[in-house]
Design a protein that fits this description.
Elements lengths: L3 E7 L9 H10 L12 H21 L7 H18 L4 E7 L6 H10 L4 E6 L9 H13 L2 H4 L2 E4 L7 H16 L8 E7 L3 H5 L5 H20 L5 E6 L12 H10 L4 E6 L7 H17 L4 E4 L7 H18 L1 E2 H4 L27 H17 L3 H4 L4
Parallel strand pairs: 1-2, 1-3, 3-4, 5-6, 5-7, 7-8
Antiparallel strand pairs: 4-9
Helix pairs in contact: 1-2, 2-14, 3-12, 7-9, 7-12, 10-11
Length: 391
């Protein structure tokens, strides 16, 4: 039988404070994250951004213990999945491929080749597809395949999204139910889904299916939750991690929290719907920043549903996805990496340049001005960046 490699895709995150700057540099060196009219500016601008943003980002990571737990959790998920697959008779080895931090995709590919894998199942740890998350990882994998004849010979099948998989929906419903029943008045608790946002232009101009998948997933979870509880809870959906002046998917999480508090909601069950692992956006953004906003607006009981991590039913669902893919339900890497017809990432017309995606999205035009100011600072000294408070 063919040896199976299961490649888990994720974003990655700095594990130590000193990793924050290099992580940001990797993030913004990606031409699919930042759009520039002149490719030669890519790395200098990434260096500038990592320099300017490191201090603030380091503060956030210090507040959650000094680094992201994402790698540790993802590798634990990989071990649990591998064990489950082998227990059901699938000779599989799991590998982790992070997009912007260790272990990088190149490392995972090298390990699979060294282990003699002949079939690869690519499973993104993003339930909902976006051109900027799963899509970016698929495109990176295809780039490596196109430049590696040995890797190109392997049979590679991909799972594009799995937001509606029964085990995922059930896992989410079970974890939410526990938090609702822990409330003082369970039937009056408000269920608040918060998903990572993307710029609105992704959906309206590029045809990204992310928003539709998030909305449909929320309804599937609510239906199952109501059947399990025997009563209905009010619920809402918002999008977090908005940065920069560009309009993102609405409504925004912080604005909805304010409205819910002012409307009299006292018990809130917060559901990080697009995250399957604890990381900076659950541990710091939700647990610290959003909790403070909620409490300031009168929400007394703020309960956050934990990320799935290695929840047994979730791992079982991942194994079912792998098994189904091996039985012919997956798609090719070429199809998985295709962009919607309306999107144009690079190169672009000069008037289009700006930022693409990340949890720290900037406006490209402003960043370029800052970059030019920085060069002036180096040449003549003393001025622009200090005057506007950036250095």
């Amino acid at each position: 039988m063919a040896r199976v490699g299961v490649l888990l895709l994720n974003l990655g995150g700095p594990e130590r404070i000193k990793d924050v700057g290099p992580f940001l540099y990797n993030l913004f060196s990606d031409p699919e994250i930042i759009r520039l009219p002149v490719r030669a500016f890519q790395k200098p601008l990434a260096w500038l951004i990592s320099l300017l943003r490191s201090s603030k980002s380091q503060e956030a990571y210090r507040s959650i213990g000094g680094g992201s737990p994402l790698r540790r959790i993802t590798e634990q998920q990989a071990r649990e999945l591998q064990s489950y697959l082998r227990n059901i008779g699938i000779d599989a080895t799991t590998y982790v491929a992070m997009r912007y931090w260790h272990p990088f995709t190149e490392s995972a590919v090298a390990d699979m080749k060294a282990d003699g894998v002949s079939k690869v199942v690519v499973l993104p740890l993003y339930p909902h597809f976006s051109i900027s998350t799963s899509g970016s990882s698929f495109r990176e994998l295809k780039r490596l395949k196109d430049g590696d004849s040995e890797f190109a010979e392997l049979s590679i099948r991909c799972i594009r999204s799995w937001f509606d998989h029964p085990a995922y929906v059930s896992s989410m419903a079970e974890l939410i139910k526990k938090q609702i029943l822990a409330c003082d008045l369970p039937q009056e608790a408000h269920v608040f889904f918060t998903a990572h946002g993307v710029p609105r232009s992704y959906v309206e101009e590029a045809g990204d299916p992310y928003q539709d998948q998030i909305q449909n997933c929320s309804l599937l979870i609510i239906d199952q939750l109501e059947n399990s509880l025997g009563f209905s809870n009010s619920f809402s959906l918002a999008y977090q991690s908005r940065v920069g002046p560009e309009e993102w998917l609405k409504p925004y999480t912080e604005e909805v929290l304010e409205k819910l508090g002012k409307s009299g909601v006292k018990e809130l069950v917060v559901v990080p719907i697009s995250f399957v692992s604890e990381h900076i956006e659950t541990l710091q953004e939700i647990d610290i920043e959003y909790k403070e906003i909620a409490q300031k607006n009168g929400i007394v009981n703020f309960k956050r549903v934990p990320a799935l991590d290695t929840y047994p039913l979730f791992i079982e669902g991942l194994a079912d996805l792998v098994s189904s893919c091996l039985n012919g339900e997956g798609i090719s890497l070429e199809d998985a990496s295709k962009l919607p017809e309306r999107v144009k990432l690079y190169p672009q017309e000069k008037w289009q340049w700006g930022w693409n995606n990340s949890s720290e999205v900037w406006n490209g035009r402003v960043a370029m001005i800052v970059f030019l100011c920085f060069l002036m600072e180096l040449i003549i000294g003393g001025g622009p960046l200090h005057q506007i408070g950036l250095l």
